[in-house]
Amino acid sequence: MAPLDMAGALAAVRNLAIQNKFSYVVTPNVDHFVNLYPETSGPRDQLFRDAYQGAALTLCDSRVIHGLARLRGRKLSIVPGSDLTAGLFAHQLAAGDRVAIIGGDNDLLATLTTLFPNPEYVQHIPPMGILSKPEAMNDIISFVANSQAHYILFAIGAPQSEIIAHQCLKAGNCTGVGLCIGASLEFITSMKKRAPNWMQKSGLEWAFRLLNEPTRLWRRYLVKGPRIFKIFMAHKG
Prior knowledge:
The chain is α/β, with parallel strands linked by helices. The chain contains 13 helices and 6 strands. It has a 6-stranded parallel β-sheet with strand order 2-1-6-5-3-4, with helices on both faces.
C-alpha cells in the first residue's frame, strides 16, 4: 500500500487524472480483504483479485487493517476512501474538470451539482447485478470511454466497482482516473450520515454504520468481517 498521507494521495490522484490513459485507485478495508481471501474461491473472487493487482494506487482505508499491520511491525498510512473523496471535492476539483459518476440517482447528482458547481458532471446509472450482465458492463465501459472525464467515480459498491474499473483498464480506450468510492458521495451530500470523528478515529465507524443500516450490513460486519482475524493469523508475511 502506498505510504501517502491525505495531501500526498490527492496529489497522486491529480497526477493520474491528467494522464492520457486510464488508471484506478482502490482503498482496501476489512470487507475487501475478506473478499480477497474467501473460504471458497470462485471466478468472481479471481476477478476481484485481478482488479486489485491492476490498480495504480492502493490506499489503506481501515484502522483495523492498520492495527493488524502494526502487530506485524508494518506501519501503514491511513487514507479512508470517504475522506479522499471529500478532499477531492473540497480542495481539488475546479472549473474545467470533468467528473463521471457511475451509480447513485438523479437526486444525488442534483445535490452534488448544487454543493460543488465548478466541475462538469456526467452520470450513468447501471442496473443492479452488473457482474452477471455483460451488456450492462459493456455499457459502463462505453460510458467511461465516451465521457472523456478526468475523474471517474465508481459508486456501485465492492467488488463491482473494482472489477468494472479493471475492465475499463483492459478495454484500452478509456482515460482519466477511477476511484472506487462506495457510499462516499452519499456522505458528502448528507444523503447518509457518517460516523462522528471520534468513532472514525477509534476504528468504530463500522459499528455506527451497522446501527444505521442493520438489515443491509449485519452480515458484512457480524458474519464476514470477523474472518479478518483468521486471515491475519494464516498470513505470516
